[in-house]
Amino acid sequence: MQSPLINELIEAFKLLPTIGPKSAQRMAYYLLQNNPNGGKRLAEAIVEAIDKVGHCDQCRNFSETDVCRICASPARKRDQLCIVETPTDVVAIEQSGIYQGLYFVLMGHLSPIDGVGPEDLGLPLLEERLKDGEVSELILATNPTVEGEATAHYIHQMATSMQVPVTRLAQGIPLGGELEYIDSGTLSQAFAGRKAV
Amino acid sequence: MQSPLINELIEAFKLLPTIGPKSAQRMAYYLLQNNPNGGKRLAEAIVEAIDKVGHCDQCRNFSETDVCRICASPARKRDQLCIVETPTDVVAIEQSGIYQGLYFVLMGHLSPIDGVGPEDLGLPLLEERLKDGEVSELILATNPTVEGEATAHYIHQMATSMQVPVTRLAQGIPLGGELEYIDSGTLSQAFAGRKAV
Ligand SMILES: [Zn+2]
Ligand SMILES: [Zn+2]
């Protein structure tokens, strides 16, 4: 008995993570009833971000410019390269404030079953990067999951074959824990305690 | 260090009810990383709903047509009129399936301090409606808050002066509610309204 447009809005909100039917309904009515301007702002922000945010040429992180702000920053140490699976991992590490080097964002992990191979993770680009000799420490910060470990192993071998020293974040990250949900303190300790592997 | 467009998207998500910084970040990255098509669908649904959903000429509920589906339905009893504060109240009552009459949606409650008077709630329209004699029971279902009660009182007087019978939803302990967690106001009303069994 509800307006079809309101129904569609509720369905669309249900696409978001953790949003069930009840929350979706609340959001839809909130925007219509209390904050239509906020709704327009949200719609525009979604379209703008999806249309204009691409990937950094150097680290593959999300960026609306060819080279992202971190890669372009003269304040970052250019001889440390931290390998993470996703952009949200970068956000988590940046929030800890412990790390001043650069990143390489895989945008996933090796998963033969899903057809995700080294090229999909930009590993040829990483290989080029290691070849130019600027990186003196490659820090593996993939998730401690089966796929994350397999990906780390693959990159470790690649780096070792090119004589690039490799470290791995210290234990302290709980087994099966996902980097993006780890608190800053734990992350800081994991960085400080990293070891050669 | 994040892309300004991603920051703006996170800020816009934070406008939604119950969404804090962490959830907003998760939603923003989820749309970019995993579901850009879903994001476009959400943006379009927001804009469509805000642009095209207006109010029903008869009951003031949200509607994209002049007369909403409930008011236009031949299946509804036209002699019962239930007064609610908001469209979400209509949704809640419709979900219970208990009521087959029509609604009148105030889109708020009387609040002199915020400058909300009878005209803002469409009460002249309600008066016209009562005048035409079709309504034989007006059901007050405003919220049991100070403002809701004051609004109910105002409408009660209006209906009585026009010889329209008025009822009020029963107040008491909710189904499954545990006595020890029920507030004393509700308990008082439950006592006052007790019945022989
Ligand atoms: Zn970059
Ligand atoms: Zn209507």
Automatic annotation (TrEMBL), chains A, B:
The GO molecular function terms of this record are:
DNA binding; zinc ion binding
Q: Which UniProt keywords apply?
A: DNA damage, DNA recombination, DNA repair, Metal-binding, Zinc, Zinc-finger
Q: PROSITE patterns given for it?
A: TOPRIM
| Record flagged with keyword Thylakoid | no
Q: Which domain of life is it from?
A: Bacteria
Q: Where is the Toprim domain?
A: 79-174
Key word Cell membrane present: no
* One of the GO BP terms on file: DNA repair
Identify the Pfam families for this entry: RecR_C (PF21175), RecR_HhH (PF21176), RecR_ZnF (PF02132), Toprim_4 (PF13662)
Zinc fingers (C4-type), as residue ranges, are 56-71
Q: Gene3D superfamilies from the xrefs? A: 3.40.1360.10, 6.10.250.240, RecR Domain 1
Any idea what job this protein has?
Answer: May play a role in DNA repair. It seems to be involved in an RecBC-independent recombinational process of DNA repair. It may act with RecF and RecO.
The family assignment reads: Belongs to the RecR family.
Name of this protein: Recombination protein RecR
**Protein species of origin:** Hydrogenovibrio thermophilus
Query: What is the primary gene name for this protein?
Result: recR
